[in-house]
Amino acid sequence: MTTADYVALALFVLLWAAHNWIISSARFFNRTSLTLAMNERRREWIYNSLRRDLKMIDTQILSGLQNGTGFFASTSIFAIGSCFALLGATDKVNAFFSDLPFIINGGRTAFEIKVAGLACLFGYAFFKFGWAYRLFNYCTILFGSLPMLADAELDPVRAERAAERVIRMNVIAARNFNAGLRAIFLSIGYLGWFLSPYVFIVTTVFIIIVLIRRQFFSDARLAIMDIDVP
């Protein structure tokens, strides 16, 4: 492990933390992030459901959110297993990298540290996805406690409180899901470290730029904003 390796790793962690902070609690170039804008659409969805007696559509949406979270949790487990399998083939992989040009090979110990870091990254993603899966399950239960249309009209305050509970749980579940998804995306940049710390810096910055663009300058963000609506 060289000084460049430690600098690249520190930059990776710093950019990851800064990205999380920007999209969750700040504005970027006076723009709201896609994540925060989507939270408002979640609120609209739950309040619209109060005006429906038949909520099969809503339960299907919740089921889709939970199933998608379960898929990524399973993927993270497979990725962790692959990392352990890679540790078992350290000598072969290390010999392969030694023969490649333009690659800084730090030796067996450095390679094992990098693989262990990658396993920790996928482990973090798994815990986020696993917790999000459980929270979406809680959200489904809270959604089932929403009053029917007639009861909501009789006691709107109670109905709004029930809706707010569902909204808060849904937003927290989505926050954990997004955190796991960011870890998966950043793992692509992390792979650059196996080539050299300089490639690691470039791939990390590139992934962060892509994620920032998707959050603040993408067509997906424009699609859910209340601007330029015909």
Automatic annotation (TrEMBL):
**Which organism was this protein described from?**
Rhizobium paranaense
Q: Output the superkingdom of the source species.
A: Bacteria
- Give the matching PANTHER family: OS09G0494600 PROTEIN, PTHR31881
| Stored InterPro entries | DUF599
Q: What is this protein called?
A: Putative membrane protein
Q: Which residues are listed as membrane-spanning? A: 71-90, 111-129, 191-212
**Keyword match ATP-binding:** no
Could you tell me the keywords of this UniProt record? Membrane, Transmembrane, Transmembrane helix
Key word RNA-binding present: no
